[in-house]
Amino acid sequence: MTELSAPFAPDWVLAPGESVFDLAEERGWTQGELAQRLGYSEKHISQLINGKVPITVDAAQRLERVLGSSMDFWLKLEANYQKHKARLEATERHACWISWLDELPVKELMSSGAIAKARIDAKNKPSIVESCLRFFGVASPDEWRSHYGGMQVAFRRSRDEQSDVGAISAWLRLGEQVAEKLDGPKYDKARFAHALKEIRGLTCEPPEIFEPRMRTLLHDAGVLLALVPAIPRAHVSGVARWLSPTRPLIQLSLYGKTNDKFWFTFFHEAAHILLHADSKDGKKSIFLDDPNASHSTDPREQEANQWAGNVLIHQDYTAQLGVLRTKDAVRAFAQQIGIHPGIVVGRLQHDHLIDPSWMNDLKLSFQLKQAATDA
Asked: Quick one: which of 275, 290, 132 has its CA closest to 196?
């Protein structure tokens, strides 16, 4: 992305009354005579000329009759003045809020295209504040802290490092923006469960095959899918949450990850939607997950892990894992149960049945395109 140059925005603005004064002066009228012709007091004319009172519709009609130019001209002049005045006042406020940027992953938001690229210096920081307010959809940093800071009580973290609210909230907001472009039916639990069975069968397919089919199956079940660039400081690669009582969202990062981690993360998030919606605070919780996290003590995280592992490799087959010591054996086992051999390798490594350096060439590395999130 090229760095955008800011549009011309002068740090001064002339009140419409300046034009009123100039036209009256051209005619040789004093403020008293102008006030008499317009039917206003001299005090009101003085305030109008100095921008302390606005040009109303009534005033615009009088100015049209006395000084010429149309009523629309005077009203537009006033509107432009108020707009630029508000811009200057906002810039002053934003300059007072630049410390807020220290709480946000500004560089990552620029890199992802969420906000325009700009040098992060004193001159540009007020406009960067404005961009961040627009991105989060809040009026001020106070509203951001109230909304996204308040969301912390709903966070269900899988690792202690997930404490950077700025990074987490930015990643969640990126997912919200994707979801805002999507529509679909209300959540259907039975259809979702059926869709997950078919999606498991797609694990052997490349992204260009499985991604559109996966998205269609989830859409028909009323589940939103957002593929969003990772923000490292968030330490989150997947999230399950409910945007409303009938709109669940599964959000996955765009790490160039191997397929074993991608599919486990997906089914882990799916488990939260499928199993925990009816639990206490289930639809209010935001499950923040990282497959690299250490063992979680949260029973819902443990249940989601067990469910995802069982979906990919059913417990009826786990006894066979201990004898898989060659690539050929892994391939044959994967073909037998209908999943990609890389997922089997990931499970063997996770269960410490083989060394983490073994058989990694059986895994598939892929990068899902962010463009696929656009509706």
From this structure: 275
Spatial distance between the Cα atoms of 103 and 189, rounded to a whole number of angstroms: 38
| Helix (H) / strand (E) containing 341 | helix 341-350
Is 69 among the domain residues?
yes
Same domain, 181 and 233: yes
Q: Is 352 exposed, middle or buried (0-12, 13-18, 19+ CB in 10 A)?
A: exposed
Question: How many CB atoms are closer than 10 A to CB 125?
Answer: 20
Q: Are residues 157 and 26 in the same domain?
A: no
pLDDT attached to residue 152: 63
Residue with tokens 């050929």: 328
Residue 320 lies in a domain: no
Taking the CB of residue 304, how many other CB atoms lie within 10 A of it? 26
Q: Is 134 exposed, middle or buried (0-12, 13-18, 19+ CB in 10 A)?
A: exposed
- Residue at 7 is within a domain: no
Are residues 164 and 266 part of one domain?
yes
Torsion of CA 26, 31, 34, 38, to 10 degrees: 140
Is the Cβ–Cβ distance between 138 and 169 less than 8 Å? no
Sort 223 into a burial class: Cβ within 10 Å, 0-12 / 13-18 / 19+.
Answer: buried
| Predicted pLDDT at 209 | 92
Tokens representing 210? 């499985």
- What tokens appear for 148 in the block? 């996204």
| pTM exceeding 0.85 | no
What total of structural domains would you count in the chain?
Answer: 3
Tokens of 19: 């034009």
Domain range holding 119? 99-136
Q: Which helix (H) or strand (E) holds 227?
A: strand 224-228
Residue 54, classed as helix, strand or coil, is coil
Number of residues assigned to the chain: 375
58, β-bridge pairs = none
Residues 44 and 115 in one domain: no
Q: What integer pLDDT is reported at residue 10 of this predicted model?
A: 52
Specify whether the CB–CB gap between 219 and 191 falls below 8 A.
no
Per-residue pLDDT of 313-343, as tens digits, reads: 999 999 999 899 999 999 999 999 999 999 9
The answer to whether residues 74 and 111 belong to one domain is no
Considering the domain architecture, whether residues 169 and 297 belong to the same structural domain is answered as: yes
Instruction: Tell me, yes or no, whether 276 and 308 share the same domain.
Output: yes
Residues of the chain with pLDDT under 50: 1-8, 153, 371-375
CA–CA gap between residue 41 and residue 130 (Å, rounded): 41
